[in-house]
TrEMBL record:
Residue span(s) of domain Competence protein CoiA nuclease-like: 69-207
Stated name of the protein: Competence protein CoiA
Coiled coil: none
Top-level taxonomic group: Bacteria
InterPro entries in the record: CoiA-like_N (IPR057253), CoiA_nuc (IPR010330)
Domain Competence protein CoiA-like N-terminal: 17-63
Amino acid sequence: MLVAYDEKRQFIILDTTMNREQLRQARKTQHYYCPACHQALQLKIGTKNTPHFAHHKQSACSHYFSENETTTHIAGKQQLYDFFSQLGAPQLEAYLPQIQQRPDILYERTAIEFQYSRLTHERFLERNAGYASINLTPLWLPYSPSKENGLAIVSLSHDIQKYRHNDTLLTYNPNTEQFIYYSALISMTATQFLVKITVLPKQHQTWPFRTPRLLTRDEFELFMQLWYEQRRKLIQHYMRYRRGTQDMLLRFVYERRLALLALPEAIGVPTDFDVEVQPAIDWQIIYYYDYFPQGVDAFLVQHDISRVKVEAYEQFLQQLYTRKVSQNELLYSQFIAFKGYN
């Protein structure tokens, strides 16, 4: 915790303007209390960790309202508080008794949460519902390791994916004092994504927060180069580790006398650009050879794939074989449409 009140009911905020020696002197004569439960707090001043207030052990308030905070979490919300202090009058760790929640920072009508530790999906929804009930908008900033600008393939766990907002995951790294944007997300598997990474130093951030630029046609070409390379690796993985006719995909390929490494590039492509529960190649090869064209309904009877995905793939194939345009041009058009860029 970075906020407490003293015997005179005056709030004390541990910001970057207070050095350790000043805090050690103050600790000798002052007592500190929690704004939520009013219990006594300890002022911890180490040599390495960020100074902070802490409940005594076995505190109910510590269990229900506070995290077991790490140095990274404390540093993150302290830096974000400094950022918003340059814009207006934020409240650090403002306790909201109506919902018994304490966002890291409350600014205007936005509850900003810097999330370093893992948060269950149920607790995430519960907190959002609490903020919504008092007309606050939650803004989650999960921690991210330092990154460099560019296009990349990254793994995003299901835990981190819940912080996505539309097509962007906005994160923060207090070690480098940088906002890190993961945008233009294209799912390859349930946890593997093609992304555009944009790193923005804290001093260059604005409010409302900046939004990353749209993916250009040239950037999309590079995306697809990465996609096709991963597609090739996936096929090689299938050939090496999947086992003959016991595997449905390999049995399908064997029965139709297909060569996995010689499949048309139109098999195994992104179509609706939403999360792929399974690799696109697994179901597209069946649709391509057994159901195209006009086989959406018949395919869905036999296969548990999103109708949106199948219809998008049907549309892509129809245009590919009737229009004189490149495959990537068609995919980029669908990307623009599904991402809502136009």
